[in-house]
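User: Could you go from structure to sequence for me? I need the amino acid at each position, not a summary. Structure tokens:
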């Protein structure tokens, strides 16, 4: 019987003897040998893997915290953009401004082209 634990691309294989007696199956304490020796090696590997898992979780917590800060910044930026857009002139205002500008330019052109003739006409009367 064999079991395989894979973590981050690393594989550790533990092979247990299928022909163990029931006495060997009982875990012994201390340095008495038996199945405890292989158990100690497996526990050491698991402890090492737990250390890596804890480091990974710590890094993930940092990433989540940074992501929350980034999302807060994005929300603020969106609110500011909405505020700026709300202050922009409407289409109606733009049309009115263009009509007013066209009227002003037309009146100015008329005065430039026909102003002296109008002044003479007004003085003649």
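Assistant: Here is the amino acid at each position, in order:
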């Amino acid at each position: 019987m064999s079991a395989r634990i894979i973590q981050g691309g690393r594989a550790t294989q533990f092979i247990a003897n299928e022909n163990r007696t029931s006495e060997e199956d009982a875990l012994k304490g201390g340095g008495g040998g038996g199945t405890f020796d292989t158990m100690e090696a497996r526990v050491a590997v698991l402890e090492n893997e737990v250390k890596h898992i804890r480091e990974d979780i710590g890094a993930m917590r940092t990433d989540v915290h940074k992501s929350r800060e980034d999302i807060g910044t994005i929300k603020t930026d969106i609110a500011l953009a909405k505020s700026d857009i709300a202050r922009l002139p409407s289409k109606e205002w733009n049309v009115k401004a263009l009509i007013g500008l066209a009227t002003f330019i037309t009146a100015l052109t008329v005065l430039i082209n026909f102003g002296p003739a109008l002044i003479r006409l007004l003085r003649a009367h």
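One structural detail worth keeping in mind: The chain has three helices and two strands.
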